[in-house]
């Protein structure tokens, strides 16, 4: 026989649903994380992006607290453009998205490492990595 509807059951179920709901990407960065970040004078932290599986360094970008929060809550790599002074989601216009598998904070708290699954090229030039084209010191030749 089905349980009789009771207001206290409804309240308990809805409180549980709220607690289990994913964080709102429009919210604020967890204060415990924000307190560990060492930002530059511009309020930004450096983000180094590597490819899951290969370890290839794809790009370096910048994040403000809101971009980091959105990245952590959606797993969509979100950065802060220093030239446009606004957030941007990687691949929102190009389709070259980054699904974030992991985010780590370095020992000094001034750089985050994003490990991503890259769709398409990571670089705006069309190269797979922003470090593909201009080699200043090639690896040594094997003897």
Automatic annotation (TrEMBL):
<keyword id="KW-0460">Magnesium</keyword>
<keyword id="KW-0368">Histidine biosynthesis</keyword>
<feature type="binding site">
    <location>
        <position position="107"/>
    </location>
    <ligand>
        <name>Zn(2+)</name>
    </ligand>
</feature>
<feature type="binding site">
    <location>
        <position position="123"/>
    </location>
    <ligand>
        <name>Zn(2+)</name>
    </ligand>
</feature>
<comment type="function">
    <text>Catalyzes the hydrolysis of the adenine ring of phosphoribosyl-AMP.</text>
</comment>
<keyword id="KW-0862">Zinc</keyword>
<comment type="subunit">
    <text>Homodimer.</text>
</comment>
<comment type="pathway">
    <text>Amino-acid biosynthesis; L-histidine biosynthesis; L-histidine from 5-phospho-alpha-D-ribose 1-diphosphate: step 2/9.</text>
</comment>
<dbReference type="GO" id="GO:0000105">
    <property type="term" value="P:L-histidine biosynthetic process"/>
</dbReference>
<comment type="similarity">
    <text>Belongs to the PRA-CH family.</text>
</comment>
<feature type="domain" description="Phosphoribosyl-AMP cyclohydrolase">
    <location>
        <begin position="59"/>
        <end position="131"/>
    </location>
</feature>
<dbReference type="GO" id="GO:0008270">
    <property type="term" value="F:zinc ion binding"/>
</dbReference>
<comment type="pathway">
    <text>Amino-acid biosynthesis; L-histidine biosynthesis; L-histidine from 5-phospho-alpha-D-ribose 1-diphosphate: step 3/9.</text>
</comment>
<feature type="binding site">
    <location>
        <position position="110"/>
    </location>
    <ligand>
        <name>Mg(2+)</name>
    </ligand>
</feature>
<keyword id="KW-0963">Cytoplasm</keyword>
<dbReference type="GO" id="GO:0004636">
    <property type="term" value="F:phosphoribosyl-ATP diphosphatase activity"/>
</dbReference>
<dbReference type="GO" id="GO:0000287">
    <property type="term" value="F:magnesium ion binding"/>
</dbReference>
<keyword id="KW-0378">Hydrolase</keyword>
<feature type="binding site">
    <location>
        <position position="108"/>
    </location>
    <ligand>
        <name>Mg(2+)</name>
    </ligand>
</feature>
<keyword id="KW-0028">Amino-acid biosynthesis</keyword>
<dbReference type="InterPro" id="IPR002496">
    <property type="entry name" value="PRib_AMP_CycHydrolase_dom"/>
</dbReference>
<dbReference type="GO" id="GO:0004635">
    <property type="term" value="F:phosphoribosyl-AMP cyclohydrolase activity"/>
</dbReference>
<dbReference type="InterPro" id="IPR026660">
    <property type="entry name" value="PRA-CH"/>
</dbReference>
<feature type="binding site">
    <location>
        <position position="130"/>
    </location>
    <ligand>
        <name>Zn(2+)</name>
    </ligand>
</feature>
<dbReference type="Pfam" id="PF01502">
    <property type="entry name" value="PRA-CH"/>
</dbReference>
<comment type="similarity">
    <text>In the N-terminal section; belongs to the PRA-CH family.</text>
</comment>
<dbReference type="GO" id="GO:0005737">
    <property type="term" value="C:cytoplasm"/>
</dbReference>
<protein>
    <recommendedName>
        <fullName>Phosphoribosyl-AMP cyclohydrolase</fullName>
        <ecNumber>3.5.4.19</ecNumber>
    </recommendedName>
</protein>
<keyword id="KW-0479">Metal-binding</keyword>
<dbReference type="InterPro" id="IPR038019">
    <property type="entry name" value="PRib_AMP_CycHydrolase_sf"/>
</dbReference>
<feature type="binding site">
    <location>
        <position position="106"/>
    </location>
    <ligand>
        <name>Mg(2+)</name>
    </ligand>
</feature>
């Amino acid at each position: 026989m089905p349980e009789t509807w009771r207001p206290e059951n409804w309240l308990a179920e809805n409180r549980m649903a709220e607690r289990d709901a994913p964080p709102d990407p429009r919210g604020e960065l967890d204060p415990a994380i924000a307190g560990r970040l060492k930002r530059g004078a511009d309020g930004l932290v450096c983000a180094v992006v590597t490819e899951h599986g290969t370890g290839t360094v794809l790009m370096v970008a910048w994040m403000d607290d809101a971009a980091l929060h959105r990245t952590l809550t959606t797993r969509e790599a979100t950065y802060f453009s220093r030239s446009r002074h606004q957030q941007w989601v990687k691949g929102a216009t190009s389709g070259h998205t980054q699904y974030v598998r992991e985010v780590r904070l370095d020992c000094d708290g001034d750089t985050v490492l994003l490990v991503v699954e890259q769709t398409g090229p990571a670089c705006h030039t069309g190269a797979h990595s922003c470090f593909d084209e201009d080699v200043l010191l090639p690896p040594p030749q094997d003897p």
